[in-house]
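Write out this protein's structure.
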Amino acid sequence: MPVRLGVLGAGIIAKSFMEAAPDVADLEVAVICDVAADAARKLAEPQAIEWLRDYRAVLADETIDAVYIALPHHLHEEATIAAAEAGKHILLEKPMANSLDAADRMLLAQKRAGVKLMLGFTHRFHSELESAKQLIEAGELGRPTLAIDIMTTGGVIPAWFWRKPEAGGGVLHVNGAHSFDRLRWLMGSAITEVFAYSATYDSRKTVEDNTVVALRFANGALGTTTHNWVTDAPVPFKCDLDIHGTSGAIRIDTWHSLEFTNANHSWVRRRLRDDMFQKEIGEFVSAIREDRAPSVTGEDGRRSLACVQAAYESARTGKPVSIDD
Protein backbone atom coordinates (compact mmCIF):
# COMPACT_ATOMS: atom_id res chain seq x y z
CA MET A 1 0.00 0.00 0.00
CA PRO A 2 1.32 3.49 -0.77
CA VAL A 3 1.95 6.06 1.94
CA ARG A 4 -1.15 8.29 1.99
CA LEU A 5 -0.16 11.90 2.60
CA GLY A 6 -1.95 15.16 3.33
CA VAL A 7 -0.44 18.50 2.29
CA LEU A 8 -0.96 21.28 4.85
CA GLY A 9 -0.50 24.61 3.10
CA ALA A 10 -0.95 25.51 -0.56
CA GLY A 11 1.54 28.33 -1.08
CA ILE A 12 4.68 28.73 -3.18
CA ILE A 13 6.68 25.86 -1.71
CA ALA A 14 3.71 23.46 -1.73
CA LYS A 15 3.41 24.07 -5.48
CA SER A 16 7.00 22.85 -5.96
CA PHE A 17 6.22 19.85 -3.76
CA MET A 18 3.17 18.94 -5.83
CA GLU A 19 5.13 19.17 -9.08
CA ALA A 20 7.51 16.50 -7.79
CA ALA A 21 5.18 14.26 -5.75
CA PRO A 22 3.51 12.38 -8.66
CA ASP A 23 6.90 10.88 -9.62
CA VAL A 24 7.65 9.50 -6.13
CA ALA A 25 7.09 5.76 -5.83
CA ASP A 26 4.82 4.39 -3.08
CA LEU A 27 3.25 7.79 -2.37
CA GLU A 28 -0.34 8.95 -2.76
CA VAL A 29 -1.17 12.59 -2.06
CA ALA A 30 -4.71 12.20 -0.76
CA VAL A 31 -5.69 15.74 0.27
CA ILE A 32 -4.48 19.35 0.18
CA CYS A 33 -5.48 21.77 2.90
CA ASP A 34 -5.29 25.56 3.19
CA VAL A 35 -7.44 28.18 4.93
CA ALA A 36 -7.43 29.99 1.57
CA ALA A 37 -9.92 27.82 -0.30
CA ASP A 38 -8.93 29.13 -3.73
CA ALA A 39 -5.28 28.23 -3.15
CA ALA A 40 -6.13 24.71 -2.00
CA ARG A 41 -8.52 24.16 -4.89
CA LYS A 42 -6.08 25.49 -7.48
CA LEU A 43 -3.35 23.11 -6.30
CA ALA A 44 -5.60 20.08 -5.88
CA GLU A 45 -7.91 20.08 -8.89
CA PRO A 46 -5.31 19.51 -11.66
CA GLN A 47 -4.44 16.20 -10.01
CA ALA A 48 -8.02 15.36 -8.98
CA ILE A 49 -7.16 15.51 -5.30
CA GLU A 50 -9.55 16.32 -2.45
CA TRP A 51 -9.07 19.73 -0.82
CA LEU A 52 -10.08 21.09 2.59
CA ARG A 53 -9.72 24.27 4.63
CA ASP A 54 -9.20 22.84 8.15
CA TYR A 55 -6.08 20.75 8.70
CA ARG A 56 -7.61 19.17 11.79
CA ALA A 57 -9.91 17.23 9.45
CA VAL A 58 -6.82 15.82 7.73
CA LEU A 59 -5.32 14.75 11.06
CA ALA A 60 -8.60 13.11 12.08
CA ASP A 61 -8.60 10.94 8.95
CA GLU A 62 -7.28 7.51 10.00
CA THR A 63 -6.42 6.62 6.40
CA ILE A 64 -3.78 9.38 6.27
CA ASP A 65 -0.29 8.10 7.19
CA ALA A 66 1.73 11.30 6.96
CA VAL A 67 1.60 15.05 6.37
CA TYR A 68 3.73 17.58 4.58
CA ILE A 69 3.64 20.86 6.52
CA ALA A 70 4.21 23.96 4.37
CA LEU A 71 2.50 26.56 6.56
CA PRO A 72 3.80 29.97 7.66
CA HIS A 73 6.60 29.61 10.18
CA HIS A 74 4.62 30.60 13.26
CA LEU A 75 2.20 27.72 12.65
CA HIS A 76 4.87 25.00 12.46
CA GLU A 77 4.83 24.20 16.17
CA GLU A 78 1.06 23.87 16.50
CA ALA A 79 0.67 21.78 13.34
CA THR A 80 3.66 19.53 14.04
CA ILE A 81 2.59 18.72 17.59
CA ALA A 82 -0.99 18.09 16.48
CA ALA A 83 0.19 15.81 13.66
CA ALA A 84 2.47 13.85 15.99
CA GLU A 85 -0.30 13.41 18.54
CA ALA A 86 -2.53 12.15 15.71
CA GLY A 87 0.10 9.54 14.83
CA LYS A 88 1.10 11.07 11.48
CA HIS A 89 4.65 11.05 10.15
CA ILE A 90 5.82 14.58 9.33
CA LEU A 91 7.82 16.20 6.54
CA LEU A 92 8.24 19.78 7.75
CA GLU A 93 9.41 22.75 5.72
CA LYS A 94 12.28 24.79 7.06
CA PRO A 95 12.84 26.76 9.20
CA MET A 96 11.75 24.34 11.89
CA ALA A 97 10.19 26.94 14.19
CA ASN A 98 10.51 30.52 15.39
CA SER A 99 12.21 29.64 18.69
CA LEU A 100 14.33 26.89 20.19
CA ASP A 101 11.73 26.33 22.90
CA ALA A 102 9.15 25.62 20.19
CA ALA A 103 11.56 23.25 18.44
CA ASP A 104 12.14 21.38 21.70
CA ARG A 105 8.41 20.96 22.25
CA MET A 106 8.04 19.65 18.70
CA LEU A 107 10.83 17.12 19.16
CA LEU A 108 9.35 15.96 22.45
CA ALA A 109 5.93 15.43 20.84
CA GLN A 110 7.51 13.52 17.95
CA LYS A 111 9.45 11.21 20.26
CA ARG A 112 6.47 10.58 22.52
CA ALA A 113 4.35 9.65 19.48
CA GLY A 114 7.04 7.51 17.85
CA VAL A 115 6.55 9.08 14.41
CA LYS A 116 9.10 10.19 11.83
CA LEU A 117 10.01 13.88 11.59
CA MET A 118 12.02 15.04 8.59
CA LEU A 119 13.05 18.62 7.81
CA GLY A 120 12.75 19.94 4.26
CA PHE A 121 16.41 20.83 3.69
CA THR A 122 16.30 20.29 -0.08
CA HIS A 123 19.93 21.35 -0.51
CA ARG A 124 20.96 17.96 0.89
CA PHE A 125 19.46 16.44 -2.28
CA HIS A 126 21.00 18.69 -4.95
CA SER A 127 23.21 16.50 -7.15
CA GLU A 128 26.10 18.97 -7.06
CA LEU A 129 26.04 19.07 -3.25
CA GLU A 130 25.73 15.27 -3.05
CA SER A 131 28.86 15.00 -5.22
CA ALA A 132 30.67 17.56 -3.07
CA LYS A 133 29.83 15.57 0.06
CA GLN A 134 31.28 12.41 -1.53
CA LEU A 135 34.49 14.20 -2.52
CA ILE A 136 34.98 15.67 0.96
CA GLU A 137 34.30 12.36 2.72
CA ALA A 138 36.74 10.62 0.36
CA GLY A 139 39.47 13.04 1.51
CA GLU A 140 39.92 14.66 -1.90
CA LEU A 141 40.21 18.12 -0.30
CA GLY A 142 42.37 17.04 2.60
CA ARG A 143 41.32 18.70 5.83
CA PRO A 144 38.48 21.21 5.27
CA THR A 145 39.66 24.69 6.26
CA LEU A 146 37.25 27.32 4.93
CA ALA A 147 33.66 27.55 3.68
CA ILE A 148 32.21 30.64 1.97
CA ASP A 149 28.44 30.54 1.38
CA ILE A 150 26.64 33.37 -0.45
CA MET A 151 22.88 33.56 -1.07
CA THR A 152 21.61 36.77 -2.66
CA THR A 153 18.31 37.23 -4.44
CA GLY A 154 15.26 39.43 -4.97
CA GLY A 155 11.68 39.16 -6.10
CA VAL A 156 8.20 39.27 -4.62
CA ILE A 157 7.25 36.78 -1.90
CA PRO A 158 4.24 36.79 0.45
CA ALA A 159 4.20 39.83 2.74
CA TRP A 160 4.21 37.70 5.91
CA PHE A 161 7.81 36.67 5.17
CA TRP A 162 8.88 40.16 6.24
CA ARG A 163 6.72 40.40 9.40
CA LYS A 164 8.41 39.15 12.56
CA PRO A 165 5.32 37.71 14.35
CA GLU A 166 4.64 35.29 11.50
CA ALA A 167 8.09 34.84 9.94
CA GLY A 168 10.15 34.83 13.14
CA GLY A 169 13.05 36.44 11.30
CA GLY A 170 14.11 37.68 7.91
CA VAL A 171 16.49 36.52 5.21
CA LEU A 172 18.72 34.71 7.72
CA HIS A 173 15.78 32.71 9.05
CA VAL A 174 14.50 31.87 5.54
CA ASN A 175 17.70 31.25 3.56
CA GLY A 176 20.20 31.01 6.40
CA ALA A 177 18.37 27.91 7.62
CA HIS A 178 19.50 26.16 4.41
CA SER A 179 23.00 27.61 4.62
CA PHE A 180 23.72 26.54 8.20
CA ASP A 181 22.45 23.05 7.50
CA ARG A 182 24.38 22.52 4.28
CA LEU A 183 27.56 23.97 5.80
CA ARG A 184 27.37 21.71 8.83
CA TRP A 185 26.58 18.68 6.65
CA LEU A 186 29.27 19.25 4.03
CA MET A 187 32.01 20.24 6.48
CA GLY A 188 31.18 17.21 8.63
CA SER A 189 31.40 19.34 11.74
CA ALA A 190 29.22 21.31 14.12
CA ILE A 191 29.22 25.12 14.03
CA THR A 192 30.45 26.21 17.45
CA GLU A 193 30.58 30.03 17.26
CA VAL A 194 29.14 32.85 15.16
CA PHE A 195 29.71 36.58 14.84
CA ALA A 196 27.09 38.47 12.84
CA TYR A 197 26.19 41.82 11.35
CA SER A 198 22.58 42.36 10.31
CA ALA A 199 20.61 45.23 8.76
CA THR A 200 17.23 46.15 7.33
CA TYR A 201 17.25 48.50 4.32
CA ASP A 202 13.57 48.26 3.35
CA SER A 203 11.39 50.28 5.74
CA ARG A 204 8.37 48.08 5.01
CA LYS A 205 10.01 45.15 6.79
CA THR A 206 10.25 44.38 10.50
CA VAL A 207 13.02 41.79 10.01
CA GLU A 208 16.50 41.85 8.47
CA ASP A 209 17.04 41.77 4.71
CA ASN A 210 20.88 41.66 4.84
CA THR A 211 23.26 39.74 7.05
CA VAL A 212 26.88 38.59 7.18
CA VAL A 213 27.91 35.85 9.62
CA ALA A 214 31.42 34.57 10.45
CA LEU A 215 31.62 30.97 11.67
CA ARG A 216 33.87 28.62 13.59
CA PHE A 217 33.53 24.85 13.22
CA ALA A 218 34.32 22.21 15.82
CA ASN A 219 36.97 20.72 13.48
CA GLY A 220 38.89 24.01 13.44
CA ALA A 221 37.63 25.25 10.07
CA LEU A 222 36.34 28.78 9.50
CA GLY A 223 33.49 30.06 7.35
CA THR A 224 31.10 32.79 6.36
CA THR A 225 27.49 32.90 5.24
CA THR A 226 26.09 36.03 3.58
CA HIS A 227 22.49 36.82 2.67
CA ASN A 228 20.66 39.61 0.84
CA TRP A 229 17.03 40.11 -0.19
CA VAL A 230 16.26 43.83 -0.44
CA THR A 231 14.42 44.43 -3.67
CA ASP A 232 11.15 43.14 -5.10
CA ALA A 233 12.78 43.23 -8.54
CA PRO A 234 13.97 39.92 -10.05
CA VAL A 235 17.69 40.65 -9.55
CA PRO A 236 20.42 38.13 -10.51
CA PHE A 237 20.26 35.15 -8.16
CA LYS A 238 23.40 33.82 -6.49
CA CYS A 239 23.67 30.67 -4.40
CA ASP A 240 27.40 29.92 -4.40
CA LEU A 241 29.43 27.85 -1.96
CA ASP A 242 33.23 27.51 -1.96
CA ILE A 243 34.88 24.92 0.27
CA HIS A 244 38.68 24.89 0.63
CA GLY A 245 40.86 22.24 2.17
CA THR A 246 44.55 21.58 2.76
CA SER A 247 44.89 19.85 -0.62
CA GLY A 248 41.98 20.95 -2.80
CA ALA A 249 38.89 23.07 -3.28
CA ILE A 250 35.29 22.85 -4.47
CA ARG A 251 33.16 25.59 -6.01
CA ILE A 252 29.39 24.99 -6.10
CA ASP A 253 27.06 27.06 -8.24
CA THR A 254 23.85 25.67 -6.74
CA TRP A 255 21.35 24.42 -9.34
CA HIS A 256 24.05 24.61 -12.03
CA SER A 257 27.52 23.15 -11.52
CA LEU A 258 30.30 21.75 -9.38
CA GLU A 259 33.97 22.65 -9.95
CA PHE A 260 36.67 20.55 -8.28
CA THR A 261 40.42 21.14 -8.10
CA ASN A 262 43.28 19.42 -6.27
CA ALA A 263 46.91 18.59 -7.07
CA ASN A 264 45.94 15.75 -9.41
CA HIS A 265 42.59 16.70 -10.95
CA SER A 266 40.61 19.70 -12.15
CA TRP A 267 37.17 19.41 -13.68
CA VAL A 268 33.73 21.01 -13.93
CA ARG A 269 30.50 19.00 -13.84
CA ARG A 270 27.42 20.85 -15.08
CA ARG A 271 23.95 19.85 -14.01
CA LEU A 272 21.58 19.11 -16.83
CA ARG A 273 18.60 17.91 -14.81
CA ASP A 274 17.85 17.20 -11.18
CA ASP A 275 14.82 17.09 -8.90
CA MET A 276 15.85 17.60 -5.33
CA PHE A 277 12.21 17.70 -4.20
CA GLN A 278 11.55 14.28 -5.69
CA LYS A 279 14.61 12.83 -3.94
CA GLU A 280 13.69 14.50 -0.66
CA ILE A 281 10.11 13.19 -0.73
CA GLY A 282 11.39 9.76 -1.76
CA GLU A 283 13.69 9.66 1.26
CA PHE A 284 10.77 10.55 3.55
CA VAL A 285 8.61 7.79 2.07
CA SER A 286 11.47 5.27 2.31
CA ALA A 287 12.08 6.14 5.97
CA ILE A 288 8.42 5.42 6.73
CA ARG A 289 8.31 2.16 4.78
CA GLU A 290 11.64 0.94 6.17
CA ASP A 291 10.83 2.13 9.71
CA ARG A 292 14.05 4.09 10.14
CA ALA A 293 15.08 7.64 10.85
CA PRO A 294 15.17 9.90 7.77
CA SER A 295 18.55 11.20 6.60
CA VAL A 296 17.51 14.73 7.67
CA THR A 297 16.01 14.74 11.16
CA GLY A 298 14.19 17.09 13.49
CA GLU A 299 17.45 17.44 15.41
CA ASP A 300 19.08 18.75 12.22
CA GLY A 301 16.32 21.35 12.03
CA ARG A 302 16.99 22.40 15.62
CA ARG A 303 20.76 22.66 15.00
CA SER A 304 20.18 25.00 12.06
CA LEU A 305 17.74 27.06 14.11
CA ALA A 306 20.26 27.30 16.97
CA CYS A 307 22.78 28.84 14.54
CA VAL A 308 20.20 31.35 13.30
CA GLN A 309 19.24 32.36 16.83
CA ALA A 310 22.90 32.67 17.87
CA ALA A 311 23.55 34.93 14.86
CA TYR A 312 20.63 37.14 15.88
CA GLU A 313 22.04 37.40 19.40
CA SER A 314 25.47 38.27 18.03
CA ALA A 315 24.07 40.98 15.76
CA ARG A 316 22.14 42.42 18.72
CA THR A 317 25.07 42.44 21.15
CA GLY A 318 27.99 43.00 18.77
CA LYS A 319 29.77 39.99 20.30
CA PRO A 320 30.56 36.45 19.18
CA VAL A 321 28.11 33.82 20.46
CA SER A 322 28.95 30.19 21.22
CA ILE A 323 26.62 27.36 20.19
CA ASP A 324 26.20 24.17 22.22
CA ASP A 325 25.55 21.47 19.62
